[in-house]
Amino acid sequence: MALILNMYRHEIENGENMELDLSAVVKASNVLLAKNDMISNNLANINTSGFKRDDIVFDVLEQGYEKDVPINQFTDYNQGDLKSTGNLMDFAISGDGFFTLESEQGQVYTRNGHFSISEEGIIEDSSGSRLMGTSGPVEVLGQNGVPGEVRITENGEVMVDGDIVNKILISDFQDKHQLEKIGNNLFKANEGATPEAIESTGIVQGFLETSNINPVSEMVKLIDMHRQFEATQKVMRTFDQIAEDAINEVGNI
Known about the structure:
Blueprint lengths: L1 H12 L8 H23 L9 E4 L2 H4 L8 E4 L6 E3 L6 E3 L4 E6 L2 E5 L5 E2 L5 E2 L5 E4 L2 E2 L12 E3 L4 E4 L2 E5 L2 E3 L6 E5 L2 E4 L6 E2 L5 E3 L1 E3 L5 H38 L1
Antiparallel strand pairs: 1-2, 3-19, 4-18, 5-6, 5-9, 5-14, 7-8, 9-10, 11-12, 12-13, 14-17, 15-16
Helix pairs in contact: 2-4
């Protein structure tokens, strides 16, 4: 019910003549449905490596109830925990930056460091996007034409059979809000956003970054959201009862 009251608080505090109508309740319900979808998606990705949780903000006090309430979704880029996997093709970044990938959609970015080696000897993700190094896609073929023993140093140097062959390209952005989620735990930079290659000393082999989702916190938000939605339903039923009573009174005249 608090969400409904907030939608009218601005008009009440300013002493404006206001008539309640069902459109305000409908708009409040739309906000809650959007929040439900966001929280559900967060919870569904608790075990997705490197996943970054989403949240939404909206300002009903500024917009009032006469206009559509703009819903702004943003991504929380705080780092998740690092978990040991023992898989030498799992990499994690401790600190800022993203792994840079060459995909069918152009250059994309991710915090999910779960990779494998293709038949061509290129390190790639599960979708076939190639991991980029400072000198191109990271190739790990040994002298005999088959993948060699791969080791990654803390600053991203790629060693194959003891020889340095490339260096993992870590990209970052001054404004991470210029990144857009495009699915498969990938981000793409919006037009005008320029990636910056950064030096990292926190690349860890044999580890993955977990999602930064706190399941308890998300469940509390989900329960609270459901309570607010129930409140909007009660308001709708009240409007319906008022309308029904009004019709009956007119019929009795």
